[in-house]
Every structure is written in C-alpha cells, then in structure tokens.
Design a protein that fits this description.
The chain is of the alpha/beta class and 334 residues long. The protein has two domains: 16-198, Class I glutamine amidotransferase (GATase) domain (Rossmann fold, 3-Layer(aba) Sandwich); 215-325, Homeodomain-like (Arc Repressor Mutant, subunit A). It is 46% helix and 12% strand. It has a six-stranded mixed sheet with strand order 2-1-5-6-10-9, sandwiched between helices. Strands 3-4 form a two-stranded antiparallel sheet. Strands 7-8 form a two-stranded parallel sheet.
Length: 334
C-alpha cells in the first residue's frame, strides 16, 4: 500500500462542505473535475477533510449534457454560511438559470456563502448580479456573448479566478486547478500536489494561466511577427485595423505581410481577419439575443447588408437563418 503524506492541518478542524448546484444539462467533466479532488484529499488525508451535497431545483434528479442522471441530496434549501456553493453549468445555461435559482443564489450570497461557477455557470452568477465589479472567467467560446451582456464584470481569460468569495472556472479540466488551489489553501501544497499525482495531473495551472493555447500552437506556426499581428486582430474585432497599419506595427511592409500570411496560412491578412470577425458574429448570433444589426456593428461591419453578404459567402446561410436554425439565439453551450 502506498503511503501518502498527511495533511498538516489540525485533526480537530471541521470538514468543509461543498454544495454542487447542478443546473439542467450541466457538463460532467467540470463537475467531476471539482468533486474528485475532494474525494481523493479525504483518502490521502486519512480523515474527512471535505463533504459535499448535490443540489438542484426540485431536489430530485439532475441530468447532464451527456444524458447521465444524478440523484440530488437537496433542493434549494438554506445553507450554512461556511458552505461553498459551486454552480455547475453547461448547455443552454440561460434556460437552466431559472428565477428560483437566481433568487436562491442571491439569498445565499447575502448570507455570506462563498459562491462559484464552473464552466458556463459564470453566466448564472452574473445574471444574479453576484459578479458585478468582480473578476471572473468563462469558457473562451462564450466570452464574446458574456462581454456584451455583463459589462459590469471584469472578465478575464484565466483558467480560473478567485476574487474574494466568488470563484469561477473556464470549464473542462479547469475545475481541477481551482480545487487544487483550494485544497492547498486549506491543508497545504503537499496534500494538493499528492492529489494531483493521484489524478495523473502533471501540470497544475494557476489563475495566471490563460485557457486557450498560445497563438503559435493554435496556428501551428512559430513566427513572432505573425503571432503579433494575429493577436492584434483578435483584440480589435469591433474596429478592424487596416493591413497597412498591422504591417507597420510589426515593422513590415504591407506586401511582406501579405506574403507571410500566404506562406503560413494560405490566405490574405484581410481574409483571415474577416474569418475571425465572422466567427465572433456566429457566436453572438447563437449565444445572445442581440439584434443582427448590433451583432454586425460589434464585429466591425458598417452595414447589415454587407454583414449578411459576407456571412452568406462564408457560412452559406444568412445571419437570420443561422439564428432561426439554432432556436433564436441566447444559447451558451459547452
């Protein structure tokens, strides 16, 4: 039997309880990544360091996006101030964020309970007003729509964020990183590192790590000037920068920039920029209730007609039909 290092905390300390609020169609990976480190910490620590309960509206059963169902321990009951609520979101989080859920989150937050959002559940926290003036994160695919709706939130691209008694993760395995930090804060880094070893989790990320791969890794090219130009494009979607200005910013001529894009990406800078803008537009159409006109403006198109023409050329459908095919917008999905 493998001997594990014991936690340095006093044995008299009361276990810390996590209440997982499972929204309809929540993502299993984020939930599992949060609950399993707690189980392993208990086993390694040799005692009950953590307990948990599964909660949900109705208090019966919650179903995740892969179809698996979980029996709940409780409904929207009153909690202890020492509890930590982790809201687990996933597909169509807007529909799952019901009025009873919002009222429950606001009530528990007023009582001083620590509240966090996993995956798309940062939307639920923001909708409840619990992230106003706070730092937070959400999955990169949902950042554009989140920024449009919640201007009061300081949204980051971090893997996870801890801002006082508000927690948030970007989804996927980011839950593991958050829980390892909390375990380290509670019981020391030795225990947290041993939990990570048990998970075969060899690279623990911090809140300083960003959730997406670096630009060179994403595009498969390591060229500093090309990466710099693409970064500028991604940062300036609403007011696109001209190829000449982009080239000047990295000390190249426009012709050199054209050749660089043709060589490595097989398209012109203008075409690549257009694809970035259209990708953002598609996200906004499917994830928000923004009008098509406002989506066009947010993505740097001067007129709806030009936007529609470009959109049809790239996606072989119009913005209006795209939205209709996906249920009229306002759908955050992971």
């Amino acid at each position: 039997m493998v001997e594990h290092p014991r936690a340095a905390s006093p044995t008299s300390a009361a276990p810390r309880r996590f209440v997982f609020l499972l929204l309809d169609q929540f993502t299993m990976l984020s939930f599992a990544g949060a609950i399993e480190p707690l189980r392993i910490a208990n086993r390694i620590g040799g005692r009950t360091l953590y307990t948990w309960a599964l909660a949900g509206e109705g208090g019966d059963v919650a179903t995740c996006s892969n179809g698996a169902a979980f029996k709940l321990d409780m409904g929207l009951d009153e909690l202890s101030r020492e509890d930590v609520v982790l809201v687990c979101g996933g597909v169509d989080v807007q529909e799952a964020t019901t009025r009873p859920v919002l009222n429950w989150l606001r009530r528990e937050a007023r009582r001083g309970v620590t509240v966090g959002g996993l995956c798309t559940a940062s939307y639920a926290l923001a909708k409840a007003g619990l992230l106003d003036g706070r730092k937070a994160t959400i999955h990169w695919e949902n950042q554009d729509s989140f920024l449009e709706e919640f201007e009061e939130v300081n949204l980051t691209k971090s893997v996870f964020v801890v801002d006082g008694n508000r927690l948030s993760t970007a989804g996927g395995t980011a839950s593991i990183d958050l829980m390892l930090k909390l375990i380290a804060d509670d019981h020391g880094e030795t225990l947290a590192n041993t939990v990570a070893d048990q998970l075969i989790y060899s690279s623990i990320r911090t809140d300083q790590d960003t959730q997406r791969l670096s630009i060179p890794t994403r595009i498969g090219v390591r060229h500093p000037k090309l990466s710099s130009v693409i970064q500028k494009m991604e940062q300036d979607i609403e007011e696109p920068i001209s190829p000449a200005a982009l080239a000047k910013a990295v000390g190249m001529s426009t012709r050199q920039l054209e050749r660089l894009f043709r060589r490595y990406l097989n398209r012109s800078p203008k075409r690549y920029y257009m694809e970035l803008r259209l990708q953002k537009a598609r996200n906004l159409l499917m994830q928000t209730d923004m009008s098509v006109i406002n989506v066009a403006l947010a993505c740097g198109f001067a007129s709806p007609s030009h936007f529609s023409k470009c959109y049809r050329s790239h996606y072989n459908t119009t913005p209006y039909r795209e939205r209709g095919a996906h249920g009229g917008g306002a759908r955050l999905s992971i």
